[in-house]
């Protein structure tokens, strides 16, 4: 039997909690691997945590300044010389652009590594798909992502997200929330078909569980309307009714909604609150404004109107919540358009998946302290077009 097929079959038939053991066995038997480790990216995208049985005893490695981090950041295999001619191949574990972690395989010599590298990279990709499916039935891989304990509100928010990045021929998406282990009400959501990409960036009011409950209600109301095939303006109206029916105007949620036509870049947009959009086009950053409408749930039976927008191939669209835009320096200066435009230009050569974390690092420097007063959300969309 072809050894790649053997590896794929082993992963397909393994129990959800035994994926690492299964891939370890087949790589030892078929590829003479000396050791195999799986590292998962933590919620803050700062470290890669080894998958092991609780309580975890292995040390995490940097997601930026380590051999594993090099493969994770570049999204390409990185081969490291280790000892006595042995090498360690670090392989990105990624599913449709969503970067989950790195598979590290130590092999006993460099002579046959190049010939095996392509197969090993494919095995890492298959492993990623199996991890995504396995997470429905086991907590092992979710636990491995935790450098610290999540607050309950953060637990609810991370479970609500579609992922942190994704890609298609027409676009690349990356997003990040801070503080990763204690977020409240900020959120993002996306869904794609063969012809359309729908994108929501939300900023809920309040703190802790109350903020998370509000966001959960609004996002699920939007998804319910979207999955019924309802146009984007009516999605906003139905979610508005759901939020108002529960909170009677005491709590509400801001949202910026886009419905892109993948063939043309034309989008229908509903701007219902505070999230902001900046566009990098031809080396120039500019803020894109829309006619502001009421947040979801502020008043009863609000009508929403979709506006027009067009993305051109090469555009980079950066969405931010007010926890980014309004963050003040120790001297009281808001981050605002100027500092944000500088950060977008400084990160223009990074892939979309890397941009949010890089901008949030810049924001921490501007803030002058590591812990923010409010949620901070950055979402980057690179538009390639068809």
UniProtKB/TrEMBL annotation:
SUPFAM superfamilies per the UniProt record, alphabetical: PP2C-like
Instruction: Tell me which species this is from.
Output: Streptomyces chromofuscus
Q: Extract the GO molecular function terms from the UniProt entry.
A: phosphatase activity
**Domain PPM-type phosphatase stretches:** 170-383
* Superkingdom to which the source organism belongs: Bacteria
Q: What is this protein called?
A: Serine/threonine-protein phosphatase
What keywords appear on the UniProt entry? Answer: Hydrolase
Pfam families according to UniProt:
SpoIIE
Q: Which Gene3D superfamilies match?
A: PPM-type phosphatase domain
InterPro entries attached here? Bact_Sigma-Reg, PPM-type-like_dom_sf, PPM-type_phosphatase-like_dom
Which SMART domains would you find in this protein's record? PP2C_SIG (SM00331)
